[in-house]
Amino acid sequence: MAHVSDLIEKDIDAYLEQHQHKSLLRFITCGSVDDGKSTLIGRLLYDSKMIFEDQLAALEADSKKVGTQGGEIDFALLVDGLAAEREQGITIDVAYRFFSTDRRKFIVADTPGHEQYTRNMVTGGSTADLAVILIDGRKGVLTQTRRHSYLVSLLGIRHVVLAVNKMDLVGFDQARYDEIVADYTAFAAQIGIKDFLAIPISGLRGDNITSKSDATPWYTGPALMEHLETVPVDDTLSAGPFRMPVQWVNRPNLDFRGFSGFIASGQVKPGDAVRVLPSGQTSRVARIVTRDGDLGQAIAGQSVTLTLDDEIDCSRGDVLATADSPPEVADQFETTIVWMADEPMLPGRPYWLKAGTKTVSAQIAEPKYKVNVNTMEHLAAKQLELNEIGVCNISLDQPIAFDPYTDNKDTGGFILIDRITNSTVGAGMIHFALRRAHNIHWQALDVNRESRAAQKGQKPAVLWFTGLSGSGKSTIANLVEKRLHSQGRHTYILDGDNVRHGLNRDLGFTDADRVENIRRVAEVSKLMADAGVITLVSFISPFRTERRMARELMAPGEFFEIYVCTPLAVAESRDVKGLYKKARAGELRNFTGIDSPYEAPENAEITVDTTTMTAEEAAERIVAELEARGILRPAIGEG
Predict the structure, then answer these.
(1) Nearest of 169, 323, 231 to residue 23 by alpha carbon
(2) How far apart, in Å, are the Cα atoms of 448 and each of 217, 492, 530?
(3) Which of 137, 199, 141 is nearest to 169 (CA)?
(4) Which of 5, 85, 247, 457 could form a disulfide with 635 if both were Cys (CB 3.0 to 4.6 A apart)?
């Protein structure tokens, strides 16, 4: 819906022309719970005449039924659309609303105030040009005010309005207003917010919302709407170097090959020299193709298809950039991460990282520190919990093109995705590439894995035994190795207990340490496979994500997940090491199957049920499966 203008009746064409060329401001409202964010947006919609008569009638009825203003119009109900929000009088999800005035169009995101929904605020603020941070005049600066302000700074939102709300409830006291502004000014300086506009308002009454209020004669600044209509929309993206992440290779027939995407920054014209990253190949733009015909120029914010003069390799996820000022390329970075999932971030666990249109596998190192948003202290941390913010190094399985987030949000920002559930678990900003990413290169070797394996008369393989403690993994793995050894095969067992005496002696049994335990063993297994050895890995390895990570390190057909299937009751009845007894007594924490989960394989190559077969029978079956799959070729001198 658009602002009600007199031009609609007088000259609809003139109105549409005017509306089409209005600038667009995206902004968010944020702050602590019940600071009046939804009420403020409702007031803006109401005063901008953005409500139909039937909506107004419904609002009046709902205000009497579920409103919080004693039967008077409750403007928050225009925004709090979820039934749960109306029942509780709070905002849970991000609510987006469009409105316009004679001077500008607006998209506003009302973000939740509760701490558990901080992740929603990151979503709403990721595309915002301006942030309105509300403070209840009775309460002053609160923890969530600081948290949201810090996120505003991290997200690179350049324009900030400090709206000191509910001034009517403190008698429009200038001293109270000045006290709050001074408090916030001191905090803002700590987090890098150098400039902001403070406005005393009453969202419910409309003071200083669309026009200056007589109740605050001591305030000499603009009303909120006046500022929103006149604040300069950031045009630095158009002025920056050209960047276009490729979303789609458009090839409808043999005569056309174009690269489609959204221009993240800069501008491009036919004839411009461009570079494809990360490959570094160069060409020139031949055409800028759109649905409405070719363009002579395209700028940031437009979606276009580019054709090039040369048939160079370019795929989805690559970045087309100006040739003489390209983004950097690296596979290791320092980043800031906002963790957005109920399950903690576990260092070493693989996640999907999506940057622009590129999705790669990523591993996060142990945080350098996390940030206390109240004091800005840097605190030691082993992992990140829900809504925590930390600085972490990230390594990828392949290089990507990027700009530092402070230079370009689109090419410097990313999200993290759980590889099992496909849910978004974190959002991050790239600071810079790690120096070691440029200093370390693969050394070419003359003897390769194939020649090493051929000398041994076998194919390299990793036999990954997983199951509960007491399931019989080590016993079966030992029997399998004895049979292979008797055939002259080259093998080695990596046993969970044995490895913890050396390589992993520094690790405990928390989820984070279990992840690192498996990561290290998987990397050793990869080296063993490269040496042509058949490696038997006997670890509980309780999490599917880490077992999948180990599989993906190996060449296709080299990884065999062997599920030693034993019910918990049976495994516990054996209890050879007395560990279940200690766990049940509370003497052993984080024990798999008792107070730490075990995620059974879903598609193991081999499953052996130790309740129906002996360890010897299980070993024979595994060896037979290896022979059937061609792993055990005749050794040199045989046959």
Answers:
(1) 231
(2) 81, 19, 8
(3) 137
(4) 457
pLDDT of res. 634? 55
What secondary structure letter does DSSP report for 421?
T
Phi and psi at residue 228, to the nearest 5°: -60, -35
Q: What is the pTM of this model?
A: 0.77
Distance between CA 428 and CA 392 in Å, rounded?
A: 10
Full set of structural domains in the chain with CATH: 7-230 (3.40.50.300), 237-322 (2.40.30.10), 338-437 (2.40.30.10), 449-628 (3.40.50.300)
* CB hemisphere CA count around 7 (13 angstroms): 12
Residues 38 and 91 sit within 8 Å (Cβ to Cβ): yes
**3-state SS, one letter per residue, for 17-28:** HHHHCCEEEEEE
Asked if 391 and 367 touch (Cβ cutoff 8 Å), the reply is yes
Q: Residue count of the chain, please give it.
A: 639
Of the chain, the end-to-end C-alpha distance in Å amounts to 82
Cα–Cα distance measured from residue 426 to residue 419, given in angstroms and rounded to the nearest whole number: 13
Question: How far apart are alpha carbons 429 and 138 in whole angstroms?
Answer: 35
Pairing of strands 424-433, 328-339: antiparallel
Annotated catalytic residue 149: no
Cβ atoms of 278 and 400 within 8 Å: the answer is yes
Task: Please classify residue 414 by burial: count the beta carbons closer than 10 Å to its beta carbon, then call 0-12 exposed, 13-18 middle and 19+ buried.
Answer: buried
Q: Which residue, among 608, 601, 602, has the nearest Cα to 472 in the 3D structure?
A: 608
Distance CA 456, CA 204 (A): 81
What does residue 275 show for φ and ψ, rounded to 5 degrees? -120, 140
Catalytic residue of the set 5, 541, 573, 596: 541
Pairing of strands 23-31, 104-110: parallel
Q: CA angle, 636 as apex, 630 and 639 as ends, to 5°? A: 75
- Cα Rg, the chain, nearest whole Å: 31
Q: Give the Cβ contact number of residue 537 at 10 Å.
A: 30
Residue 7 pairs in a beta bridge with: none
CA-nearest of 214, 132, 217, 207 to 168 is: 207
Give counts: helices (H), strands (E), the chain.
Answer: 20, 27
Q: pLDDT tens digit string along 179-229? A: 999 999 999 988 888 889 999 998 888 899 888 999 999 999 999 999 999
DSSP-derived pairing of the beta strands 461-466 and 534-538: parallel
Q: Which amino acid is at 181?
A: V
394 neighbors 362 (Cβ within 8 angstroms) = yes
Q: For residues 442 and 528, what is the distance between their CA atoms, to the nearest angstrom?
A: 17
- From 595, 601, 497, 591, select the one nearest 545 (Cα to Cα): 601
- Which residues neighbour 316 within 8 Å (Cβ) at sequence distance 6 or greater? 246, 247, 248, 249, 357, 358
**Cα separation, 121 vs 114, whole angstroms:** 10
